[in-house]
Amino acid sequence: MNEYDLLVQRFLDHDLSPEERVAFLEAVDSDPILRRQWLNLEMVVTEAAQLPRMTPSARFFTELKAKITPPSLSWWGQFYATVTAPRTLEWNLAGAVAAACVVIVAVGGLFSLKPERVVEVPVATVPAQTIAAGTTQQPTVFVRLVLLQPGAQSVSVAGDFNGWDPAQTKLERSDGGVWTATIPLKPGRYQYMFVIDGKQWIADPLAAEEATDGFGAQNAVLDVAI
Predict the structure, then answer these.
(1) Digit-coded pLDDT (tens) for 122-151
(2) Which one, of 182, 187, 192, lies nearest residue 213 by Cα?
(3) What is the mean pLDDT of residues 6-25?
């Protein structure tokens, strides 16, 4: 892991101080390679958060407990364990005869009390899922928008993806005056602008491309691809 990887990881884990976060965003603004690496990792973290979390069922815990808990021995099991436990004996003729009698009785009792074998057949509880053939769904890409505006009271974004309505997508403030928002978008090309305090419209300074809006201003351009 190089210095850039460590810096991006600390930024995503919120381990940077406000001053370090500002310095990181300034470095991202001046280095397109670092900006691309950071945005890719932001996308991975966001998509990972959307994955479903699986919770083990009560049956799973019951079966696990049954497997790790030693079974309680019956009186016959305890007797058999006592008889078959390894020990050192001083043998003589009387002791040998007595031991042979105990073994004969134990073996006879073992065959007479052998329980019937029970086979447990697992039953599938999860219904089969049917996937319609030929059904395609356009993938969604989670895009992270970031703006450094320490003096702003509110920041939102307006663009092709929300009908140019700033009220639809608001950014959240974090330490150091950094405003962020994560929005799901279909692959395509979008124009957008940030709106500061509901009245000041500015293009994204981190955008890799800009396009004229036809009225003398420049919109930021966002290319979303898989």
Answers:
(1) 544 545 454 444 556 778 888 989 999 999
(2) 192
(3) 76
CATH numbers and ranges of domains, the chain = 3-52+135-224 (2.60.40.10), 58-112 (no CATH)
Q: Spell out the SS3 assignment of the chain.
A: CCHHHHHHHHHHCCCCCHHHHHHHHHHHHHCHHHHHHHHHHHHHHHHHHCCCCCCCCHHHHHHHHHHHCCCCCCHHHHHHHHHHCCCCCCCCHHHHHHHHHHHHHHHHHHHHCCCCCCCCCCCCCCCCCCCCCCCCCCCCEEEEEEEECCCCCCEEEEEHHHCCCHHHCECEEEHHHEEEEEEEECCEEEEEEEEECCCEEECCCCCCEEEECCCCCEEEEEEECC
Gap between the Cα atoms of 168 and 103, Å rounded: 84
pLDDT in tens, 203-219: 998 888 898 877 778 89
